[in-house]
Amino acid sequence: MARAGLTVERLTLAAAEMADEVGFENVTVTALARRFGVKDASLYFHLRNAQELRVRVAMLALAEMADRAADALAGRAGKDALVAFANAYRDYATRHPGRYAAAQLQLDRETAEASAARRHAEMTRAILRGYRLAEPDQTDAVRLLHSTFHGYVSLERAGGFRHTPRTTDATWSRTLDALDALLRNWPPG
Amino acid sequence: MARAGLTVERLTLAAAEMADEVGFENVTVTALARRFGVKDASLYFHLRNAQELRVRVAMLALAEMADRAADALAGRAGKDALVAFANAYRDYATRHPGRYAAAQLQLDRETAEASAARRHAEMTRAILRGYRLAEPDQTDAVRLLHSTFHGYVSLERAGGFRHTPRTTDATWSRTLDALDALLRNWPPG
DNA sequence: GGCACTAGTCTAGAGCCCCTAGGTAAAGAA
DNA sequence: TTCTTTACCTAGGGGCTCTAGACTAGTGCC
């Protein structure tokens, strides 16, 4: 009965890796325990329940995405920043599909506050500084950008663009052109 | 042992109602059987497995959304059509959250072909006729619209817009203005 | 009406998952 | 060394998925 050296952090990271390998919906407490050569009941010493594990993976993913986005944004402005930010987001989803799926988990208000969601919003606002939008247009633009990025990535991952021959990379690039154009010519209220 | 008169269609419809009431993820074969006063094993005479049930609910939702969108589109063109289409989509998600969640299920290629997804794409292209976009811009615009609508609705439902006081209705309306403006001034390749 | 056949439901049970209660061994403190 | 705490274990209940095989309700035919 040697100790496995489990911690919440190790469990969360392993769960995130597992999510990328087999899909977030297949990450179970039982399967995670198996991976550590331990009984499932043992994990409940470290986790309140299975939902906590999922939430922790979601928080990890949100934080990682924010880190990547921040790196991508460093030293850039205007369209350059917009493109780098969007690509960081899309690349993360491609490389870490399970984590990305986890990040879509519905978090309760308090948990959402504690997450990196605020950093995402702040970075988006930073990008918009280059486009000089006043409130409430700025908030609307933040929401539009989030919606489009998230929608594009999740439809692409779900195979929603497969029926047309045009590559999704090409459309992605043109979508960013279009959003840049839109932000430069935001329609008056 | 009176017969319950189960059919795949009745099961699918009941599952869809159940999804709207308790959430798509809580629709199980066992719970559905309970609702019909029948043992869970009995449903496997009508369904291959639980996944088939989920897929059928997804197909139902996609078809219903396409119907609503088609109604909304009738007799409209230009921005009018764009707004009506987008609202039909968003309203459906509001009234039928469980069905909407089901519609996001990943379908395999064949199932997706048999779904109403093609009708959605055709309607979007019909809207774009008013904006006179040539290929490949048209395909890109279809993808952009889908992405934005889907992204907006799912972020809104997930509570992603709660942290800012601005109402989501106001942003939605301005988002449609912005998309209309963008389509009228689509940037040259 | 009786018989054969099919369709629809049931019971029993295996396997996996979530989670709790209570036991026990390992690691560290005194 | 002994004591305490920490970390893991066994046992078990309850839910979900799904299969095998039994049984019955209904249908068609004589």
Task: Itemize the secondary structure elements and their pairings.
Two copies of one chain form a homodimer.
Chain A: H1 8-22, H2 29-35, H3 40-43, H4 50-73, H5 78-95, H6 97-103, H7 109-114, H8 117-129, H9 137-157, H10 168-184
Chain A binds a DNA duplex (30 and 30 nucleotides) through residues 1-6, 28-31, 38-42, 44-46, 49-50.
Notes on the protein architecture:
2 copies of one chain form a homodimer. Chain A is mainly alpha-helical. Chain A has helices at 8-22, 29-35, 40-43, 50-73, 78-95, 97-103, 109-114, 117-129, 137-157, 168-184. The first copy, chain A, has 10 helices and no strands. Chain A starts with 7 loop residues before the first helix and ends in a 5-residue tail after the last helix. The relative contact order of chain A is 0.11. The model of chain A has no long low-confidence stretch (mean pLDDT 96). Chains A and B meet through helix 7, helix 8, helix 9 and helix 10 of A and helix 7, helix 8, helix 9 and helix 10 of B. Chain A binds a DNA duplex (30 and 30 nucleotides) through helix 2 and helix 3.
